[in-house]
Each structure stands twice: as structure tokens, then as C-alpha cells.
Design goal:
By secondary structure, this protein is of the alpha+beta class. Strand 7 and strand 8 (140-145) form a beta hairpin. The protein is 17% helix and 34% strand.
Length: 270
């Protein structure tokens, strides 16, 4: 067929258009995974016990992952680490059962809006996750993320014991790591307080508990602290007041005079 033949031109145009269409679909399918509303705090971390240094490391985040691809495709999870409870994110304040996401192709991303596919799941703070999904055409996409809860402590620190006549201690909080806290509230034995007043608390062996509930602030750095809620607690006891012996002025002067005279006599003997 002569290259100048109009039929040859139309055939080449159809082939070019088909190639452009295939390239467009390939690029469209290879668009990276997106994380929408990434690291949503579930505010379900256990309280950090400052006496035993346990708790406070199990806070969870909800994650919403999106794939942009042509409609009619099927995207399944083929690899996952640190990702739990596919399509089963618990309410805020509730701990997830942390069922690992299956990677045998049984977890299928949900079509949404025709050209997007979504997956909601849970991951644990500071542990993070990685996730890989693939379609039937052999296109594979991966994503990972990690975020942290705040790490509040009492500032000034709460002691393990006080005397009943010790001065009152203001209740405050600071961040042991990460950015400054946004806010904090305090209780002693479950009642809201702003001061720890030893004179107003029952004596040992009664054990008292000071607890703070803090909200963090977001950090854009690599640690990715988020504005989640985290609690901390410290136990303490109050002991009876220590009596300070009072020395009468007259007796004190007499003792001082006697000591001075004894020192003078010792010097004269030398």
C-alpha cells in the first residue's frame, strides 16, 4: 500500500490513537497510592504508668488508602506489614483487635467513585505499616506510613511520697519527647485538681493517684507526632508531718555561751 494512500494514513492514525490510549491507561493505573486523612487518631492508647513505665505505647491510628485507576479493575492486597483490621476501624476510644490484613488476595479494595479504590485499616503508633496492592494486569503499588502519640509527663514531677506539712505542688505537664502539648487536665484520686495539697489528703498507707490527660500537637518532622490524646499516672503517699523541735531563746543563748567559754578555755591551755 502506498504511504501516500489515504487508507494508510487512517490506519496509522488508528494505531497511534490506540497506543496513546494504552499509554494513558498505564500511566493512570500507575499513579501512586494516596493516603487520605492519614494518621487519624483513635485516642485509644492505654495510660502510661510512670511508676512501672508500662502502657502508653499501644495507641492506634486509622488509615484510608486510595488507588486511582480506571474503572472496572480489581485491586487486592498482596503484601502487608503492621496493617490490621481491613474495613473494620473501631470507634474513637476503642481498641482494635488487630487482626492482620490477609495477603492471599482475599482483601479487595472497595471501588469508590468509578476511578478510585479504597481501603480502611488500623496501625499502631511508632510501629507504622507497609502495604502493597496489585491489579489483574500485574500493576503493583506500595505505600507506607508511621505516626506517634504524644508523650506527656508531670512537670514538675510528682514525688513518690510527701509529708503532710509539705507545700502544695502545682499540677502541670510537659512533653518528654516531641512537640509541646496543646493542653492537659489533671485529677487526683479521680477528682479534678490543679494543685497537689498534701495537707488535704489521707495519710499512708492510703495510696493516692495523680493522673493527667494531655492532647498533643502535630509535628511535621520525621517523627510525625499527631494531636492525639494520651494519659499518664503517678502514685504517691502522704506521711505524717515531721515535727521541727523549737529551741527556746533563753536556753539557746545559754548553750551558745557555754560552747564559747569551752572554746576559750581550750585555747588558753594550749
Amino acid at each position: 500500500m502506498n504511504s501516500s494512500d489515504p487508507r494508510c494514513f487512517r490506519r496509522r492514525s488508528r494505531l497511534a490513537a490506540r497506543a496513546i490510549g494504552v499509554a494513558f491507561m498505564l500511566v493512570y493505573a500507575l499513579m501512586p497510592l494516596a493516603a487520605d486523612a492519614a494518621c487519624t487518631c483513635l485516642n485509644n492508647a492505654s495510660v502510661h504508668d510512670l511508676d512501672s513505665n508500662v502502657g502508653g505505647t499501644d495507641g492506634q491510628f486509622a488509615e484510608h488508602v486510595v488507588v486511582n485507576a480506571p474503572s472496572g479493575q480489581t485491586w487486592t492486597v498482596t503484601a502487608a506489614s503492621g496493617a490490621f483490621d481491613a474495613f473494620n476501624v473501631p470507634p474513637v476510644g476503642v481498641q482494635s483487635p488487630l487482626v492482620p490484613i490477609a495477603t492471599n488476595g482475599s482483601v479487595v479494595m472497595a471501588p469508590s467513585g468509578g476511578t478510585t479504590y479504597t481501603l480502611d485499616f488500623v496501625f499502631v503508633q511508632a510501629q507504622g505499616y507497609s502495604l502493597t496492592v496489585a491489579n489483574a494486569q500485574g500493576v503493583s503499588l506500595s505505600i507506607g506510613n508511621n505516626c506517634r502519640y504524644p508523650d506527656p509527663v508531670f512537670a514538675p514531677a510528682i514525688a513518690s511520697s510527701y509529708f503532710q506539712n509539705d507545700p502544695s505542688v502545682p499540677l502541670g505537664a510537659a512533653s518528654a519527647s516531641g512537640p509541646a502539648l496543646a493542653s492537659a487536665s489533671f485529677t487526683i484520686d479521680g477528682a479534678p485538681q490543679t494543685m497537689l495539697v498534701p495537707a488535704g489528703l489521707a495519710l499512708a498507707p492510703r495510696i493516692h493517684t495523680a493522673e493527667l490527660t494531655a492532647t498533643g500537637t502535630q509535628d511535621a518532622g520525621p517523627s510525625k507526632y499527631m494531636p492525639c490524646v494520651q494519659g499518664a499516672r503517678k502514685s504517691f503517699v502522704v506521711n505524717p508531718s515531721i515535727a521541727v523541735p523549737a529551741v527556746q531563746l533563753g536556753w539557746g543563748s545559754l548553750v551558745l555561751t557555754a560552747l564559747l567559754m569551752l572554746g576559750f578555755m581550750v585555747r588558753r591551755r594550749r
